[in-house]
Every structure is written in structure tokens, then in C-alpha cells.
Amino acid sequence: MNKFALTRLPHMTLLLAFKTVAEHGSFTRAATALHLSQSAISQQVVKLEEALGVTLFVRSTRTVALTRAGAALLDDIRAPFDQLVAAFEKCARKAAPSVLHIEAEPVMSAFWLTPRLKHFTQRFPALRIQQLLSTQRVEFPDEVELAIKWGTADWPGFETQFLMGLNYVPICSPALLEGPDALRVPADLARHPLLHDRHHHDWEAWQALYPTPGLEVRSGHVVTDSNVLAQLAIEGHGVALCAIELTERAVRSGELVMPFPELVMPHQLAYYLLTKPHKQISDMARQFIAWLKEEAGNGA
Question: Which SUPFAM superfamilies match (predicted)?
Fold first, then answer.
């Protein structure tokens, strides 16, 4: 029989306090991480030392270092402790409603994804989808499993899958098809202000593809929000160059029209699905990705 045996196991909070101090190398930082006071953390570590009959830390004014016994204890409890925490989290996830966290571009979410979401959520009535909206950057906090981002295929630090390309065409209010300056042929575009999304590049590329006499592609109004761009076009402020795929609802409703639907410009950028290369995604996220590809028309 062992000469030394615990009559009862130390409380979980004592082990958690010890592990947090050891991993942070500081009582202060451990207290911050656990949302407790420094004195509370110190008392919990002292209680653990008393229960075990060993000194776990060498304390000085500015530093905290593990003793040999403390280092051995940390090595022994780290893996089983993390497994226990993971088991609790897994159990809690099963009990809680399923939540899928995604990141998306605002215009893509507003005009393409959100109108289609009901088709997916009807399959999973208990599912809750939380969208983080970001423009021209990727945030990807820990809870996010996938992002839908506009750009090239090169996203350092992420695995990328092509989702969909966009086809741009001149779009405007139906009012611009009437009156003395009505849009009847492409040359009539020169009589109306052009609407630009952030810069003049798209209209410049369109003009290079479809040379139009008299069209000053660096003139007109510039906005930094694609939603505002569409609204400017709806209100008759000019002609915007927009993606057919993102304005289909407004065209169906009659808020917008395509005066020259044959003058389509495939955009050099596209939407991509981003995931972390070493982060396993949930089965729900995999099903969501497969559904997105089906909706975009590039499913396997």
C-alpha cells in the first residue's frame, strides 16, 4: 500500500487555478483569464499545495516559476484536464441549439446569401446562423468556421475553394429609359452620370471590353458601399455597373433594369470559401458549404 494517498481529490477549481498560473507564468494574468481576483487565485493555489503537501511554485516579487513537483504535476494533468474540458464542452454543445458562425461580405449577404438562407434552414429548424459581416478584410474569430470573401484565390493562412464568379452589366432605374436622354444605345451612357463602387476600375475594364464613344469612365459618383451604389441606381442618380447575380431581385421587382443586357463583363475577381487549414469544421459547416456550392451552380 502507498505510504501517501489522498483521502479526497482536490477540487477542480484548485487544479484550474494552478494550471492557469503555470501556463501564464503569472498570478495576475491568471486572475484576468479566470475573471477572479489575484488573491483568490493565490489562495486556491495555496490550498492545492496544502492538499498535496508540496510546493508548486517558487514565488518572488516579479516572477513565478514552477518547482520540479509543479512542473511534473502540470505535465501529468494537462492532457487529461483538457480532455475533461473538451468532454464538458461537447456535452454542452449537444444540449444547446446548433449555431453556425460564418463571415461574409455585406453585399453578398444582403443580395445573394440571405434571400436563399431559408432554403437551408428549413432543413434544420433548430439551426441558428450568426453572420459576421466584413468588407475588404477577413477577421475570422475563433467561433467562425468559414468565410465567404471577394477577391482572388490567394488568401494567406487559409484554404480556399472557388464559390462563384460575377457578371457585371450596366444597371439603372427604369426612369432612365424614358425622356429625351433615354438609354437606347450604349452611346447614350455618355448623357448620364456613372456610379462607381470604390474606384473607377470596373467601368474602365468595361469600356476596354465594349468601347463606347464619348463615355468618360472617370466621371460620376463614387461610393464605398455596394448597397448604397444599388440604392443610388434605384433612385435614378445614374448608371451603375453591377453584378447580375447580386441584383436579380431588384431587376425582377422592376426597381432596376438592364438597358444593355448583352454587354456583360465577367469580373476578374470572384467569391471564395475560406477555412482554416488545421481547424476541423463541424458536420453542419460541411453541409452548408455543399449547399452553397449547389446554390452557386458549381456543386459536384
Answer: Periplasmic binding protein-like II, Winged helix' DNA-binding domain
Say if residue 33 is in the same domain as residue 70.
yes
Rg (alpha carbons) of the chain, rounded to whole number: 29
Q: Are residues 206 and 255 in the same domain?
A: yes
Q: What b/e string do you get for 275-294 counting C-beta neighbours within 10 Å, with b at 16 or more?
A: bbeeeeeeeebeebbebbbe
CA angle 26, 30, 34 (to 5 degrees): 175
If you count them, how many residues does the chain have? 300
Whose cell is 493555489? That residue is 45
Q: Are 26 and 64 in contact (CB under 8 A)?
A: yes
Per-residue pLDDT tens digits for 111-139:
999 999 999 999 998 899 999 999 888 99
Handedness of CA 239, 243, 247, 251 (dihedral sign): positive
Task: Name the domain count of the chain.
Answer: 3
Farthest CA pair distance, the chain: 104
Q: What is the pTM of this model?
A: 0.67
Q: What are the residues facing 270 on neighbouring strands?
A: 151, 165
Structural domain including 148 reads: 99-162+270-296
Same domain, 52 and 190: no
Residues 287 and 256 in one domain: no
User: Do 190 and 214 form a contact (C-beta atoms < 8 A)?
Assistant: yes
Bridge partners of 223? Answer: 197
